[in-house]
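Quick question: what would this complex look like in 3D?
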Amino acid sequence: MIRYSTASVVALVASLGAAQAETNIDWWHAMGGELGAKLEEIAQGFNDSQDEYRVTPSYKGTYPETMTAAIAAFRANQQPAIVQVFEVGTGTMMAADGAIVPVHQLMADHGQDFDAAAFLPSVVGYYTDGDGNMLSMPFNSSTPILYYNKTVFEAAGLDPETPPTTWAELEQFSNQIKESGAASCGFTTQWISWIQTENLSAWHNQPIGTLENGFGGLDSRLSLNGPVQVKHWENLKRWSDEGIFKYGGPVGADNAAPMFYSQECAMMMGSSASRAGVIANSSAYELGFGMLPYYDDVEGAPQNSIIGGASLWVLSGKSDEEYAAAAALFDYLTQPEVQADWASFTGYLPITQAAYDAMESFHAENPGADTGIRQITLNEPTENSKGLRFGSYVQIRGVIDEEFEQLLSGSKDAQGALDAVVARGDDLLEQFQAQNQ
Amino acid sequence: MKRTIFSNQLLPWLLLAPQLIITFVFFLWPAAQAIRQSFLREDAFGTRTTFVGLENFVRLWNSPEYLNSLQVTAVFAISVTVLSMGLSLLLAIAVDRMIRSTRVYTTLLVWPYAVAPAVAGILWWFIFNPTIGIMPYLLGGLGYDWNHIQSKSDAMTLVVIASAWKQISYNFLFFLAGLQAIPASLREAAAIDGAGPVRRFFDITFPLLSPTTFFLLVVNIVYAMFDTFGVIDATTEGGPAQATNIMVYKVYFDGFVGQNLGSSAAQSVVLMALVLVLTVIQFRYVEKKVAY
């Protein structure tokens, strides 16, 4: 019911940005605060670089809100040319082939020099179809890393320059930290779904779903109730009971970062894009960076971590001039200087090899800033570790959080909780498949 | 009732038109759309639509999450209603006894009603935040480890308190007005006959308050079921593990976040039916059976 009123409000807002002499396109995004200001600066840079096209960025709220607004606008025929969609919305966007214009096609149609090979495969792989064609433009990609408090490590008698590399070490360090009284909890984490389930699977080369984690088609189903994931969830529950791990809440875990900042927890696994925020809040102690821990008894670990973040999608139903403008903007966004500026300011990963090279001096001056990129490029991605692509994935992430909470409250064991994730997730995938076939 | 005879047939329709148009555009048309959508299966962008009959409803009744949501809604609505009505009745009785300070207390007690549900939610979220809130700190001192992020009962307690707090003002005003409408002579007569304050309340005051109480009962149930979206969204977002996922929040989440429009529409049709039932109860049963 409410959907229609949302659509009309969106339509009204869209009509306010009326056309001028140059071709004007809208770019809806979900970057608030400092990130939003930086994005506007980039858009301004594009507008100043030429006088044919003009892009107007508008902040539309959180990722789900932005995506919902774009979908409602599309249904009311008032869609923006470009919309930023988070990685879990990728499956939904990709399945909507009548609603989107693939980026590889857009670039070819408008004569933009576009070399897919220039992009970092572990970033772009997430957004390409089965034939290797890029469907959306990666914009802000990050990957989870380990942040740790060197001051607490020292107080606990640990070497502050050595973060744990395996989960066994992490457990041992946490116990030592807790017993010595240097901090009351060993570690916390953002994103149980993204970090402790999806990335855990990729990092240990375990499948998240069938058919190459969903890349192979809509009839893919979940398979993340394998032995490694079950063992890990079991451990998290045990560590939570022992008090060395503290749960920070569902989705991105709002309470994880405050527990790390206040030195309650000595370590936190979080997005590499949180780097600037973590540094800003860690003036009271020395901060260290490390890769995600792994289980050394799992063959092939560590493999490589997978990305999160968002990409830019082009919606259908626009004029040729508007698409030319979108193509020109994408060309601008992939320039090494623009990429390097954005990546070093935000902590997001550069998307091209040239941008990565341009950041060499930045990485040399900022130790730890390249942890994320080293992690995603650690090995050639396998079919288990190039990403995931499922429909209704926002809801499936919700299911992961809920079942993890069932595990913590003791009403299910790890196997039961992960089996329930698979059963409930598969039901959503079945419905999604029916809706999109 | 006063009757007006219009000589012109068009004029009455014209006079009614603004209200009729608003009702049609904002209530009837969207409701019809929801009913239509509830029989369809559609992808998010609306490019593929299939008629699936009652499948969306069948799925709901077979879904443990939806049945859980029904149960959560019932527990939540009853707790909010009992808590907010009980507290406001106590406050109204207390204020009713005041002679000079009634107005001051009334004004103070009405304040929370002016707070938007989302703001109320944020307020309570801060107070009860397990990491930075004051209440978990105090409760920790008493030996209780408050954590509404992990504990289902803590989460339910939090949303019930936040929602009930907001409704106390409204209930208080009606109870106070109801109390003041009861003639003092009745209570005085009972007092002369030797009835104590408790006896006077249960034998005289409470029965005479019943119209107000029944009215508030329906209003509070409707409030708890439909107007608490902001509180839930700002505090628990339906978690942990769907422990506070009331029906209205589930409609929003499945439709707006999950883009499953068919299921979301079917759920809103179920809600519509519930509102109808509540309205019928209010008009047919309550208004007739309650003694004024």
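Answer marked as accepted. Residues 144-305+388-435 of chain A form a domain with the D-Maltodextrin-Binding Protein; domain 2 fold (CATH 3.40.190.10).
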